[in-house]
Amino acid sequence: MYRPEFRIDKKGMPIVKKEKIGDIAQNFVQDFCPAALERPQALDVDKFAEFYLRLDLDYRFFVGDNSVLGMTVFCDYEDFRCGTIIINKELASNSRQRHRYRFTVAHECGHWVFHRRYYNYNPDQMELFATECERPCYTECRTVNQREDSFNMPKWSDERWREWHADKFASAFLMPKRAVDIMKKGFGKELSSGEVVFEFVNMMVEVFDVSAQAAYYRLDELNYISCNKLSEDQISLIRDD
Question: I want to staple 84 with a disulfide (CB 3.0 to 4.6 A). Which of 1, 80, 153, 178 is the partner?
Fold first, then answer.
């Protein structure tokens, strides 16, 4: 199994740039499903979590707090063992929420990849993650997403950094740069108008089984959009067909 290397600070918090996270995510894809980097396709996130990372997937209702989509357990806690990802059962059972479910599982895998050493410093902690993982559905999650240039990064809390790491991982894992490049080359058009961008976004939705919002943000992150970018309010109106 691929074992990434990255710097951490004295608390165990990763010190890693978005490009490095993208490289790490793509290396996982290379080891887990190399064909996906030659023939762009939707990855099996459940299989990645359970059979590659050897995590337990559990599904529970979060009574009184349906805003919680996922949880990652870093140590034995109550009836959960260390290495358990818990997904909101309502999310998992709703086929219309498939894209959000897939992103949430990949997001939680990102926490496991990057944050185990952080929690080794607090062995009795369990971390609640993600009130929302596919930007920009909820405002509270937009504060930890690919719009990092909007914030004073040195003042970010550990929690915001962790969410940022996990979001970057999920996006790059589900839509690896090499696979996006193959699609873009085959597309044969510059992403120089809103109409063309949305045409390509729709292709990404079909190929990678992700939301339109996630696909748009991935293109933006890779600096592939050469026309005027959408505002946050406009992006919030993007809907899947």
Answer: 80
pTM of the model: 0.85
Handedness of CA 14, 153, 217, 162 (dihedral sign): positive
Q: Is 15 helix (H, G, I), strand (E, B) or coil?
A: strand
> Which contiguous run of DSSP H or E holds residue 127?
strand 127-129
Contact status, residue 219 vs residue 201, Cβ threshold 8 Å:
yes
Q: What angle do CA 95, 129, 209 make, to 5 degrees?
A: 35
pLDDT band at 238 (very low <50, low <70, confident <90, very high): low
Tell me which long-range contacts 227-231 makes (C-beta under 8 A, separation of at least 24).
227/191, 227/192, 227/193, 227/194, 227/196, 227/197, 228/194, 230/194
Surface-to-core class of residue 116, CB atoms within 10 Å of its CB (0-12 exposed, 13-18 middle, 19+ buried): middle
pLDDT over threshold 80, residue 103: yes
If DSSP codes are grouped into helix, strand and coil, which group holds residue 46?
Answer: helix
